[in-house]
Specification:
By secondary structure, this protein is an all-beta fold. Helix content is 0%, strand content 51%. Strands 2, 4, 5, 6, 9, 10 and 11 form a seven-stranded mixed sheet that branches.
């Protein structure tokens, strides 16, 4: 069992930056690949970024490539999402998720979810 708690969301002007954090507790954090997803109002939840257990391999959705960066610190049991050059379209609830085997890029691959943190970008 893994418990995930996101933080770092908020209100930011377009062009600004935020860093989301997801703190994990329970089973060994380094045993899990991690991902970030988001859900905008009226839309389905979508993949944002994923990272493998060691942090050596990452994937990012095309919509965020070059602006967002996923990373992890296994010593701190935390995964991060650095978000730069934010746009109004990035407004959503952001969720972190864990998968024991592979970096999750689809919802069905996710074994555990956090409760989400709201990011609102205004122009």
């Amino acid at each position: 069992q893994v418990q995930l708690v996101e933080s770092g969301g908020g209100l930011v002007q377009a062009g600004g930056s935020l860093r989301l954090s997801c703190a994990a507790s329970g089973r060994t954090f380094s045993s899990y690949a991690m991902g970030w997803f988001r859900q905008a109002p009226g839309k389905r939840r979508e993949f944002v970024a994923a990272i493998n257990r060691s942090g050596g391999t990452t994937q990012h959705a095309d919509s965020v490539k070059g602006r967002f960066t996923i990373s992890r610190d296994n010593a701190k049991n935390t995964v991060y999402l650095q978000m730069n050059s934010l746009k109004a379209d990035d407004t959503a609830v952001y969720y972190c998720a864990a998968n024991f085997w592979v970096p999750p890029t689809t919802e069905v691959q996710c074994d555990y979810w956090g409760q989400g943190t709201q990011v609102t970008v205004y122009s």
